[in-house]
Amino acid sequence: MSPHHYPTFALDDIANLHESAQVEFKLAGGRDGNGMLPEGMWESYSAFANTLGGEIILGVKEQQGDFTIEGIINPMPMLSEIWAILHDPKKISHNILAPTDVQIIEIMAKKLIRIHVPCVDVKLRPIYVGTDPYSGTYFRVGDADMHASREQVEQMSLKAGIDLKLKQLKQ
């Protein structure tokens, strides 16, 4: 499998938009409607990285199971913020994205941000939000991000050859 394998789904087929084990939609509208990164996006980033990988699409609204493409008026500041967060080890344990994994796409004359999150090798897991792997590690189960248990985090760390207790003492 190539490192940039993208799951196939049609964003322009509005009637059939749905979330799945590998697709998460977020509105990202912000209070003023001009765009803001949704906090839950990073849980999806962790979950996809620790499971099968997937796509986070920003600019799609969900209302009672129906999805509509809303778009993002000015996506450039959001792109800058995404990269700043990915390079801040206090916010995300590892940046696993290549520049081509984050794109502005246009559908129905509306701009969206598409983030391809690859599944990471067990040697890099767990990928987590914040500085505490126990509170910030997620898995993808169906169309939901699930918090990993302490035991699951420790199992991932053992497979990666990481001693979490030693790592936390260094912080």
Mean of the pLDDT scores? Answer: 84
Question: Class, according to the CATH hierarchy?
Answer: Alpha Beta
**Integer tally of domains:** 1
C-alpha Rg (nearest Å): 16 Å
The CATH level-2 architecture is identified as: 2-Layer Sandwich
SSE string, helices as H and strands as E:
EHEEEHEEHEEHH
Q: Please count the beta strands (DSSP E, at least 2 residues each).
A: 8
> How many separate helices?
5
Low-confidence stretches: 1-9
Description:
Pfam families: SLFN_AlbA_2 (PF04326). By secondary structure, the protein is of the alpha+beta class. Helix content is 25%, strand content 23%. The strands form 3 sheets. The protein has a 4-stranded mixed β-sheet. A two-stranded antiparallel ribbon has the order 3-4. The longest helix has 11 residues, at 76-86. The radius of gyration is 16 Å and the shape is globular. The chain starts with 22 loop residues before the first strand and ends with a helix. The model is unreliable at 1-9 (pLDDT under 50).
